[in-house]
Amino acid sequence: MLIYVVEDERSINEIECYALKSSNFEVMPFYSAAELKKGMEKKIPDLIVLDVMLPDNDGIAMIGHMRDDVRLKNTPIILVSARSSEIEKVRGLDAGADDYITKPFGIMELVSRVKALLRRVERRTDRTNLLIAGDITIDEQKREVIYQGQNIYLTYKEFELLRYLVINKGIVLSRDKIMENVWGFDFQGESRTVDMHIKTLRSKLGQGRAIIKTVRNVGYKLN
Ligand code: CA
């Protein structure tokens, strides 16, 4: 488990790193928001211990940016601050921090909060997100499609298309609607793109193809 410790006060940074290392975590220290940014470009950690008051940025604002970034959306963050006021805690948690710890804190407390948060995250990822339609199961987390126990290998867009059909099963979806949702509003393709992908999707599903119905002059529907 790799933890990034972001704290500009060197002595506190050292103590935090030492405590986490002693608990067998791999730790990397950072002393500013800019350094953290660089570190993140190289590798995304399993957890971040983040000081609110950094010389070059505000921790809470940084969390907001991280949560907007797909790669960092789910990275567990413990916010550390000297400010004990409730409003700061609320601001931090609202911005997307997973936990909040107030300075001064005992080193044992930090370690146990880190462990508790990692346990929580593990449980979160254990609970797989399955979408089911007939014999087709989509594991959203693993991006896997299983038909009658067999893995079906789909391209990125085929997967997105099937996922969209499954979420809307029983509903007639026009080609335009499918285009909008699977390819995005600004995609300048023809609706033939949808038909082509439906065709490859059907052929990959084999026997399971019957689940995708063509609705004449409109589009498609999953039964
Ligand atoms: Ca600070």
Question: Could you characterize what this model shows?
Answer:
By secondary structure, the chain is an alpha/beta fold. The chain has two domains: 2-125, Rossmann fold, CATH 3.40.50; 130-222, Arc Repressor Mutant, subunit A (Orthogonal Bundle). Helices cover 44% and strands 22% of the residues. The protein is built from eight helices and twelve strands. The protein has helices at residues 10-22, 33-42, 59-68, 86-95, 107-126, 156-167, 175-183, 192-205, and strands spanning 2-6, 26-30, 47-51, 77-81, 99-102, 130-133, 136-139, 144-147, 150-152, 173-174, 212-215, 219-222. The strands form three sheets. The protein has a five-stranded parallel sheet, with helices on both faces. Strands 6-7-8-9 form a four-stranded antiparallel sheet, with helices on one face. A three-stranded antiparallel sheet has the order 10-12-11. Strand 7 and strand 8 (144-147) form a beta hairpin. It is elongated, with a radius of gyration of 23 Å. The two termini are 44 Å apart. The site of calcium ion has 5 residues, from loops.
